[in-house]
Write a structure and sequence with these properties.
The chain has 11 helices and 11 strands. The chain has 270 residues and is of the alpha/beta class. The protein has a 6-stranded mixed β-sheet with strand order 2-1-3-8-7-6, sandwiched between helices. A 3-stranded antiparallel β-sheet has the order 9-11-10, with helices on one face. The longest helix has 20 residues, at 231-250.
């Protein structure tokens, strides 16, 4: 299954907040054997939200996560944008509305006015595109919902990472991810040569084992190569790559290159 993530938030685009949700979702999606194809970060503008959701639904992803913009203030307009993309009105979802009215009642019993607690803003959080279903969670009032459209599914999640992760682990994973993908086997290979030394080797391995994902990541004093895919293919790639690294490391040229790289790293650190 192909998955995409749309992160909504002016605060992320301005650099005031660092997004943590896309990386969390990417990790969990991969854990269940699915592919995260795309992450988009867009502003709190309902027109841009509608355009991006429309784009995602027209692409290869059959599961689209939209994160953020579900709160009680004027700039929380994600539900509005998604409703526009789906061509449906915003409607009040009874489970959310009931929970919010419980809060309103408790506020009244505590002697606070509706204005003091911003009740109208809270009630806005019960609105979602027609046809949406509430995703329950054990913490607070979180307007997380899901809606099906044209063979795809949109999952709308809160922006605060603690809330998003609660909904994700309690409801999203059991319902939409567990048991639906092919578990990936993961291998890691490291070497202390320049990253470019094995570029041709990696290209050839990727062509021979297209079911695997091979990534090369230079670190301060070594290169880390991550391999993910079906068990046999991932293990075969790792075995062949380790053999190539060992063979080159044992050669005269490999030994001279390792010594050269060691001197360069030492000089760079001094």
């Amino acid at each position: 299954m192909d998955v995409s993530v749309v992160v909504v938030g002016d605060e992320i685009l301005s650099g005031h907040v660092q997004d943590a949700n896309a990386s969390f979702i990417a990790t969990r999606v991969a854990h269940h054997g699915h592919r995260l194809r795309r992450v988009a970060i867009i502003p709190d503008d309902p027109k841009e939200i509608a355009a991006e959701v429309t784009r995602e639904l027209a692409g290869p992803a059959t599961l689209v996560f939209v994160c953020g913009g579900l709160g009680p203030t004027h700039d929380d307009r994600t539900m509005e944008g998604i409703a526009a993309a789906l061509g449906t009105p915003l409607v009040e979802l009874a489970p959310l509305a009931a929970r919010i009215e419980e809060i309103v009642a408790s506020v009244g019993r505590a002697g606070f006015s509706h204005d003091a607690f911003g009740v109208e803003g809270l009630r806005k959080m019960a609105l979602a595109p027609a046809g949406a279903e509430v995703l329950p969670t054990s913490i607070g009032v979180i307007p997380a919902v899901t809606v099906e459209h044209a063979g795809g599914r949109i999952v709308i999640l809160p922006g605060p990472p603690r809330e998003l992760q609660a909904v994700f682990t309690e409801t999203v994973e059991p319902r939409f991810l567990e048991g639906t993908g092919v578990a990936l086997w993961r291998e890691e290979v490291t070497h202390r040569f320049p990253e470019s030394t094995f570029a041709v080797v990696l290209t050839e391995l990727q062509a021979r084992f297209p079911s695997t994902s091979i990534g090369s990541y230079p670190q301060a004093d070594h290169t880390l190569i991550r391999i993910a895919g079906p068990l046999d293919d991932a293990q075969n790639v790792a075995e062949e790559l380790r053999a190539q690294v060992t063979r080159f490391a044992d050669s005269d040229e490999g030994k001279r290159l390792l010594e050269f790289m060691s001197i360069r790293r030492h000089d760079g650190a001094s």
